[in-house]
Amino acid sequence: DIETAEKPAGLLGRLVGRGSGSEQRRTLDDDMLEQLEELLIAADMGVDTALRVTANMAEGRLGKKLSAREIKELLAAEVARVMEQVAKPMPIYAHRPQVVLVVGVNGSGKTTTIGKLASQFKAAGKNVVIAAGDTFRAAAVEQLQVWGERAGVPVLTAPEGSDPASLAYDAMTQAQADGADLLLIDTAGRLQNRADLMEELSKIIRVIRKKDETAPHNTLLVLDATTGQNALNQVEIFQKLADVSGLVMTKLDGTAKGGVLVALADKFALPIHAIGVGEQIDDLAPFDPEEFAAALTG
Ligand code: GDP
Questions:
Q1: What ipTM was predicted for this assembly?
Q2: What is the DSSP letter of 7?
Q3: Is 252 annotated as a binding residue?
Q4: Measured from the CB, is residue 137 less than 6 Å from ligand 1?
Q5: What is the pLDDT of residues 257-293, one digit of tens each?
Q6: Which residue numbers delimit the SRP54-type proteins GTP-binding domain (predicted)?
Q7: Complete DSSP assignment for 17-49
């Protein structure tokens, strides 16, 4: 859990000897690899990925004496190598409107992320429209309206409890009529009734395609990085519900054990378009693999 979250950072020091300097050397043997695996698992990397990362790190180096600094650098390089393959900004197309469907469980940071994205694209000179597609959560709609005001972006809403697909259809009509560059569509995230959610999402997609058969152009899955290995389950579930094209990882500003990002990259190879680093409108950053690897390994 979050309270006991520990990055490999301080732990790496312990691995090579308590209180010893970063130049203290130790043999890279099975024992050390096992300890490294444990550190990575504790950092939320998951067993499979931790094993793969340490195996790659050790390749050609078993029996060698390495300093703590060297181990850290090897580990960071291996993590960066995995993450470089998924660090890709959300693709922007010339097609208008570019329709971005945003999915994810409630509480993952979907609404906040849509507000941040709207603000960024607006600042980049794009004409943006938001559709508050989670029509069953009045709070989500209100929150989106607040974000829309802050970003200076119109938010299309529908009466509480009304059909989100109907809102999506109206939003498509309006975005097309206005010549909008981007239409960001929020969706419900109630996993409690997965059959309903699947029906709802597929209906939204069907309806969007009636207006533009190439849409949606992006399907972003928003994941809370503090949920650890749960994020892996959520990808699996949402890939069945929609054609997920990329991820946004939120709450990486806190004590999140960011190791789950490595597990996600290793398992699904889905692009990570951006990371949430706070609750404010500007707290959305591009994903930087080198920076991430350095922070994760301490
Ligand atoms: P939704 O239910 O998926 O729409 O989630 P919200 O956007 O309402 O976010 C849930 C909570 O997480 C809110 O309190 C947000 O302020 C918070 N939140 C969202 N993204 C981030 C982030 O990147 N960092 C932090 N610290 N909090 C975030």
A1: 0.99
A2: -
A3: yes
A4: no
A5: 789 999 999 999 999 999 999 999 999 999 999 999 9
A6: 97-298
A7: -TT--TT-EEE--HHHHHHHHHHHHHTT--HHH
CB of 112 closer than 6 angstroms to any ligand 1 atom: yes
Write out pLDDT tens, residues 125-180. 999 999 999 999 999 999 999 999 999 999 999 999 999 999 999 999 999 999 99
Phi, psi of 85 (to 5 degrees): -70, -20
What is the predicted pLDDT for the residue at 69? 85
From atom 20 of ligand 1, which residue's Cα is the shortest distance away?
Answer: 109
Residue corresponding to tokens 């950092």: 43
Q: Does ligand 1 come within 6 angstroms of the Cβ of 135?
A: no
The model's pLDDT over 73-123, given as tens digits with 9 standing for 90+, comes to: 999 999 999 999 999 999 999 999 999 999 999 999 999 999 999 999 999
Which residues fall within 8 angstroms of residue 167, CB to CB, at 6 or more apart?
A: 131, 132, 133, 135, 156, 157, 158
Which strands form 284-285's sheet, in the order they lie side by side?
Answer: 155-156, 128-131, 182-186, 98-103, 218-224, 246-250, 272-276, 284-285
Question: Does residue 110 line the site of ligand 1, with CB under 6 A?
Answer: yes
191 has a pLDDT exceeding 90 = no
- Which tokens belong to 189? 């995230």
| CA atoms of 77 and 72, how far apart (whole Å) | 8
Q: In this structure, what is the dihedral angle of CA atoms 116, 121, 127, 133, given to the nearest 10 degrees?
A: -40
Closest residue to atom 23 of ligand 1, CA basis: 276
> What's the CA gap between 48 and 50, in Å, rounded?
6
DSSP per-residue letters across 251-262: -TTSS--THHHH
Q: Are 295 and 111 in contact (CB under 8 A)?
A: no
How many A from CA of 19 to the centre of ligand 1? 38
Q: Is 186 annotated as a binding residue?
A: yes
Do the beta carbons of residue 267 and residue 86 sit within 8 Å? no
